[in-house]
Amino acid sequence: MIELRNVTKTYPNGTKGLNQINLTVEKGEFIAIVGLSGAGKSTLLRSINRLHDITDGEILIDGKSITTAKGKELRMIRRDIGMIFQGFNLVKRTTVLRNVLAGRVGHHSVPRTLLGLFPKEDIDLAFEALDRVNIVQKAYARADELSGGQQQRVAIARVLAQKAKIILADEPVASLDPLTTRQVMDDLKRINMELDITTIVNLHSIDLARQYATRIIGLQAGEVVFDGPVSEATDERFAEIYGRPFHEENHLLEEAVV
Ligand SMILES: Nc1ncnc2c1ncn2[C@@H]1O[C@H](COP(=O)(O)OP(=O)(O)OP(=O)(O)O)[C@@H](O)[C@H]1O
Is there an atom of ligand 1 within 6 Å of 17 CB? Predict the structure, then answer.
């Protein structure tokens, strides 16, 4: 379970990324976070695993405060949280397998992994993870030889090898074409269902959010302006909230950029 209690994040320049957010996410939920550009989606996701420090409030992961955790305790909490980024964040000049094995680093002492020494169980786990995202045949390819969609699936496999209990995906499909977008979202959804991994995905597309999520959270200017099931996240409701109509994919982003 993830709990945000009165979470506020003010950037050093005074911008309020998040303003008094209160949220509870239950184990196994698949949540899409939507909102206009600059609404605070990335800030929210990055605050959950403390890539960003919040300025007020508290975030609890399975009852433990990640906000106050230090040293080993912080590392242990973070080990359970996998992050997926728009830009994949792979080491491009090394193999897919090594990239997936990087997910195991938090489970071992540092010197061992620096030498690239992983036990057989880890190698097995990495192959199992690659198999789950249908990319096992690319295990020995260099990461930069893969298409964007394949690279994102390697990033998902890395999180699986990590044995993360929570996946935070920050615009995971923003740089992918529609077909690849579907494949990556299908993978995330299948993993969520099969392994009961709590999944929070930032999306620009409300249509995509409705297709995959079970709960949608709408942000605006760092505040939660919608929190409900897909059935309530209608175009009409969103137009009402954001003060403008939208029907197409990425409409929220396009409106914001114009
Ligand atoms: N490092 C930073 N310093 C100052 N302000 C920041 C910083 N990062 C983000 N912000 C501001 O915080 C607010 C929320 O930004 P955030 O990136 O979380 O929004 P977002 O909803 O993810 O946007 P996008 O859809 O464009 O990625 C914005 O006003 C943004 O300009």
Answer: yes
